[in-house]
Write a structure and sequence with these properties.
Structural class: mainly alpha
Oligomer: single chain
Number of helices: 6
Family: Belongs to the universal ribosomal protein uS13 family.
Subunit structure: Part of the 30S ribosomal subunit. Forms a loose heterodimer with protein S19. Forms two bridges to the 50S subunit in the 70S ribosome.
Helix content: 40-55%
Keywords: Ribonucleoprotein, Ribosomal protein, RNA-binding, rRNA-binding, tRNA-binding
Number of strands: 2
Organism: Denitrobaculum tricleocarpae
Protein name: Small ribosomal subunit protein uS13
Distance between the termini: 59 Å
CATH topology of the largest domain: Helicase, Ruva Protein, domain 3
Strand content: under 5%
């Protein structure tokens, strides 16, 4: 089991797919990392040598913000918006959609499960 950026990545998957288990690395960045390190696309994690794992780890540390640092940065950005009291910050504070979606119907992911309103029959 290879451990990169504090995450145990699955050993049976291809390297490009396994790297996406790290928060902040998607398919595009995973392919980019594999190309810079020189790992073929069909190589699996359990076939990697220790040297290759170290090179991947160094490439991620050097060029990308991932895991804890990225989560902290995003949380600080949201906190900044809330402290400013701007529109987006108020939407975050109220737990409503931030990017202009409708809320009269839908928006259940952001608002949570529907709460019945007393006396609203008919």
């Amino acid at each position: 089991m290879a451990r990169i950026a504090g995450v145990n990545i699955p050993t049976q998957k291809r390297v490009q797919i396994a790297l996406t288990y790290i928060h902040g690395i998607g398919r595009t960045k995973a392919v980019e990392i594999c190309n810079t390190v020189g790992i073929p696309a069909e190589r699996r994690v359990n076939e990697l040598t220790d040297d290759e794992v170290v090179r991947v780890r160094e490439a991620i540390d050097r060029g990308y913000t991932v895991e804890g640092d990225l989560r902290r940065e995003v949380a600080m950005n949201i906190k900044r918006l809330m402290d400013l009291g701007c529109y987006r910050g108020l939407r975050h504070r109220k737990g409503l959609p931030v990017r202009g979606q409708r809320t009269s119907t839908n928006a259940r992911t952001r608002k949570g499960p529907a709460k019945p309103i007393a006396g609203k029959k008919k």
